[in-house]
Amino acid sequence: MQENEQFMRQALVLAAGRAGFTSPNPTVGAVLVKNGRILSQAAHHRAGAAHAEAAALQLAGSAARGGTLFVTLEPCNHHGRTPPCTEAIIAAGVTAVYYAVADPNPAAGGGHGRLEAAGIKVERGLCEAEATVLNRFFFYAVETKRPYIIAKFAASLDGKIATRTGDSQWITSPQSRQRGHELRQIVDGILIGAETAVADNPRLTTRLNRDDIHHPIRVVLDSRGRVPLNAHLFQPTMPAQTIVATTAAMPVTHRAALEARGVLVWEFEGDGRVPLSPLLDRLGRHGLMSVLVEGGGEVHASFFAQKEVQEVWAFIAPLIIGGADAPDPVGGQGVAALADAFRLQNLTVELVGTDVLLCGVV
């Protein structure tokens, strides 16, 4: 069992290495073993490419016969962009399959039963908790048809995200900012409000020292067209796509200028603000399984008030800013009673540079 767990953990490492690249598919790793040694291993690289199981079997060739396959997700049993992995496993002569967690997609499920019907030993549950966390975006999107939302902010010890004059660069350490880019690498989208876009003029790109960089789709909430056309986010040379969610209050000329730059402009009916529920529905239909919300405080407040946050990443720096007018990471009116406060579970606490990173599920 310990050796089996070792092989499954290797499959999880392979899958994690492709996080951010496979959407709207899950991220999956597979390790093929025979006589106690690894014959081949592979990960699903991107949607439309070979699934991890099929890739590992192809690498092994005829040597796969009699082998054992360790895979992080139940092998699919349907024709999509690629043939069913169950058929590839059966044809290869694999005698046993261990998978970590069941596939929640009803269109792709049934792999376990199909393999058992072919006389293959099948076991589920090895490293299930780790595999579930790894594909939490996929599982949530399959269930809700909406992206999984992570609220991320950097704050001082007294809970400020900037000084009263708006100075915010940089509250946290370089190591924390690096971790923030690692988080951008694995999500499909990154969202900010117009106020943050105007104040910081961010690029919202991923900046990491690696060859394969994934840049999330940028989403800007701008109900009235406040963000200037010369903002970094709207430049045609920017990698990935920019979406502006707006209302009828945006001037027609501003919208036309954005679209001329290649920006997608989505108009929603609202009372002066972009309504979150229709926006999340549309982001889900657009193929986004996860969105990182980086603020500002009023945007975070809206997501919390409507109970649309699934996870929080809070970088806390050891400095005191002070000031009643200095902005907070979550604005709005907040809850009236502590019993109604949003509490985090499955909490992890990590020292990152000089800062503390707290992560948890809402």
Secondary structure category: alpha/beta
**Strand segment tally:** 14
By DSSP (H or I, 4+ residues per run), the number of helices equals 11
Gross morphology is globular
| Fraction of residues in H or I helices | 25-40%
Rg (C-alpha, Å):
23 Å
Q: H/E order of the elements?
A: HEEHEHEHEHHEHEHEEHEHEHEEE
- Please give the largest β-sheet: 9 strands, mixed
Q: Numbering strands along the chain, what is their spatial order in the largest sheet?
A: 10-9-8-7-11-6-12-14-13
Euclidean distance between termini CA atoms: 33 Å
Topology:
Layout: H1 2-16, E1 29-34, E2 37-43, H2 52-60, E3 68-73, H3 85-92, E4 96-101, H4 111-117, E5 121-124, H5 128-134, H6 136-144, E6 148-156, H7 174-186, E7 189-193, H8 194-200, E8 217-221, E9 242-246, H9 252-260, E10 264-267, H10 276-285, E11 290-293, H11 297-305, E12 311-317, E13 345-352, E14 355-361
Parallel strand pairs: 3-4, 4-5, 6-11, 6-12, 7-8, 7-11, 8-9, 9-10
Antiparallel strand pairs: 1-2, 1-3, 12-14, 13-14
Please give a structural write-up.
This protein is an alpha/beta fold and 362 residues long. Helix content is 28%, strand content 23%. It has eleven helices and 14 strands. Strands 10-9-8-7-11-6-12-14-13 form a nine-stranded mixed beta sheet, with helices on both faces. The protein has a five-stranded mixed beta sheet with strand order 2-1-3-4-5, sandwiched between helices. Helix 3 (85-92) links the parallel strand 3 and strand 4. The relative contact order is 0.12.
